[in-house]
Specification:
Elements: E1 2-7, H1 13-28, E2 30-35, H2 40-46, E3 52-54, E4 62-63, E5 66-67, H3 69-97, E6 101-105, H4 109-117, E7 121-125, H5 138-151, E8 156-159, H6 173-176, E9 186-189, H7 192-205, E10 210-213, H8 220-226, E11 229-233, H9 236-244, E12 249-252, H10 258-270, E13 273-275, H11 281-290, H12 292-296, H13 311-326, E14 342-343
Parallel strand pairs: 1-2, 1-6, 2-3, 3-14, 6-7, 7-8, 9-10, 9-11, 11-12, 12-13
Antiparallel strand pairs: 4-5
Helix pairs in contact: 3-4, 7-11
C-alpha cells in the first residue's frame, strides 16, 4: 500500500512527528515524503536514505519574538495566487504514483491535491486544537480560521496534544531510550532572535548552570533527559517532550501566536510549569526556580490532559483509519530505492 505523507514547514514539531512515525510506517507501507525545503536537512539526519519531494509552505513573518500579522497575511498571498496550479500538478503526480492514502501534518497542498485525485486524506496535527479553544480574543478567531485553512479537506482527523487531543504526545524513540536523571543544569532551547535577550536575563536572575540549544555540537536527547528543568519557546513538541520526561518547563511563547500562547497557558494549568513573554523572563525565572520542587511532585492532571507518550496509540489509530478508508490490509512493498532529494 502506498502512502503520501506531508508536513508543514513552520516549526520543527511537524517534522519531528514525521521522524517519530517514519520507522513504523516504513515497516507496513511504502511511504512517499512531501516536505518544504526548510525541513530537508532536519529530516535527512533523522530519516536517512529517503527521497524528499519539495512542496511550498506558508510561514509567519516575525519581528524578534512577535508575529507580524499584516505582513504574514501579505506574504501568504503569494502562495495563495499559485495555489491552484500547484495543487493540480501535485494531484497528477499522486495519481501517477498510485497513492492509496495521504497523511498530512498541517499543510493544505497535498490534502487538496488528494481530494482532486479522489484519494482519501488523514489529517494529523496539533495546531488544529486551536479550534477547540476559541475565546473573546480576536487572535483566537484568526488562529482557528488559519487552522481550518491549513488542515484542508480530510476524511479523518487526529489532533495530537498534551491537552484535549484525540491522542497524546508523539515522542521520538531516541529521546525515550536515554538514561533519565535530574542533573544540576537547565536546558535552554530558544530561537536565535531572542537568545541574547533571554540569556542576559538568565545570567542576572539564575545561578544554576545552563546548556543552550540549538547546538550542533550538543546531544539534545541526552541533555533533555539529564537536565533539571527546561526553558523553551512554546512549540507543542518541545513542551510535550519535556512533560513526558517529567521536566518542569518555563515557556516563552511568541506574541500574537495564539497556538503558542494557548500551549503555554495549558502548561501552567497542568501545574508542571510557568510561562511569560520574553521581556519578563528574569522575574518569571525567579518564580519558576522558587517552585521547582512543586513542579516536580507527582500530581493528578486536569481532565483532558495526557503527558504519556502516545505513539503506539497513534500507530493503531492510523492503521485503523487507513483500513477503513481503503478497505485494504497493510502489506509492505518495500521502500524507494533512491536517496537524492526531488521536487514535485
Amino acid at each position: 500500500m502506498k502512502i503520501a505523507y506531508s508536513c508543514a514547514g513552520e516549526g520543527f514539531g511537524h517534522a519531528s512527528r514525521m521522524a517519530a512515525l517514519s520507522p513504523y510506517l516504513e515497516k507496513k507501507y511504502r511511504v512517499y515524503y512531501f516536505i518544504p525545503f526548510t525541513m530537508i536537512d532536519f529530516l535527512k539526519k533523522r530519516i536517512p536514505g529517503k527521497i524528499f519531494r519539495c512542496i511550498p509552505y506558508f510561514t509567519f513573518i516575525r519581528n524578534m519574538n512577535k508575529i507580524q500579522l499584516a505582513k504574514t497575511f501579505i506574504s501568504s498571498m503569494v502562495n495563495i495566487v499559485s495555489f491552484p496550479q500547484t495543487v493540480m500538478a501535485l494531484s497528477k503526480y499522486l495519481r501517477k504514483l498510485r497513492i492509496d492514502v495521504v497523511i498530512s501534518d498541517f499543510e493544505p497542498y497535498l490534502p487538496w491535491a488528494a481530494r482532486l485525485a479522489g484519494i482519501p486524506v488523514i489529517q494529523m496535527n496539533h495546531p488544529g486544537i486551536d479550534r477547540k479553544h476559541i475565546s473573546v480574543n480576536p487572535i483566537s478567531w484568526l488562529a482557528a480560521a488559519a487552522a481550518f485553512l491549513m488542515e484542508g479537506p480530510y476524511n479523518k482527523c487526529i489532533h495530537i496534544s498534551f491537552y484535549h487531543g484525540d491522542t497524546g504526545p508523539v515522542i521520538r524513540r531516541g529521546l525515550l531510550q536515554q538514561q533519565k536523571v535530574n542533573g544540576n543544569f537547565i536546558l535552554v532551547n530558544i530561537k536565535s532572535a531572542i537568545r541574547e535577550k533571554v540569556l542576559t536575563q538568565l545570567q542576572s536572575y539564575c545561578d544554576i548552570p545552563f546548556v543552550v540549544y540549538p547546538n550542533p555540537d550538543g546531544d539534545f536527547e541526552r541533555d533533555m533527559n539529564c537536565c533539571l528543568a527546561v526553558i523553551s519557546n512554546a512549540g507543542h513538541q518541545t513542551l510535550s517532550e519535556a512533560l513526558v520526561l517529567r521536566k518542569p518547563v518555563l515557556s516563552i511563547p511568541e506574541e500574537n501566536q495564539y497556538e503558542q500562547i494557548l500551549n503555554a497557558r495549558m502548561l501552567k494549568e497542568s501545574g508542571l510549569g510557568e510561562w511569560c513573554f520574553v521581556e519578563c523572563v528574569g522575574p518569571a525565572m525567579t518564580r519558576f526556580l522558587a517552585n521547582l520542587s512543586a513542579y516536580q511532585m507527582p500530581r493528578i492532571l486536569p481532565p483532558g490532559f495526557n503527558i504519556e507518550d502516545s505513539t503506539s496509540e497513534l500507530h493503531e489509530t492510523l492503521d485503523r483509519f487507513i483500513m477503513q478508508l481503503t478497505g485494504k490490509e497493510s502489506i509492505s512493498i518495500g521502500p524507494e530505492k533512491h536517496t537524492e532529494s526531488h521536487s514535485a
